[in-house]
Amino acid sequence: MAVSIHGNNGFITTNGTASAPSFAAPDNDTGLYFGTNLIHATTGGVNRFNIDASGRVGIGTTTPTQKLEVLGTTNLYGNGGASAVWGNTGYTGHLTYDGSNNAVIRAASGKALIFQTDHVNERLRITSTGKVGINEDVP
After folding, report:
1. Statement: residue 122 has pLDDT above 60
2. CA distances from 30 to 19, 33, 43, 54 (A)
3. pTM of the complete model
């Protein structure tokens, strides 16, 4: 690996690859590498995270088409696709692709799925027992 320090540009290095990143950890196949207007992160010699010139971020893809694109082969339910989990414990809510071309939104066990407008006004609630309320929080 060739690294030089440039007065105006900081560190300059070769592009590198997933298996031989430009800036590597002691195991040599974990680190950062670069392409033309691209930044990649790698672990175990596999590309994991990318940022392209337009600011699009890809996890599990080297060519994201949205501002944030997450792709995967399995999710928490064992289905094909990727999952996004939110909440303090990581199990409050779940957005996933189920492997059958369905997008699925899940609430944690025993919790309601709530839709709000204006960040505060509850408009729709689906309880864990399947009751639906529109403009009421106790259907």
Report:
1. yes
2. 8, 9, 4, 25
3. 0.57
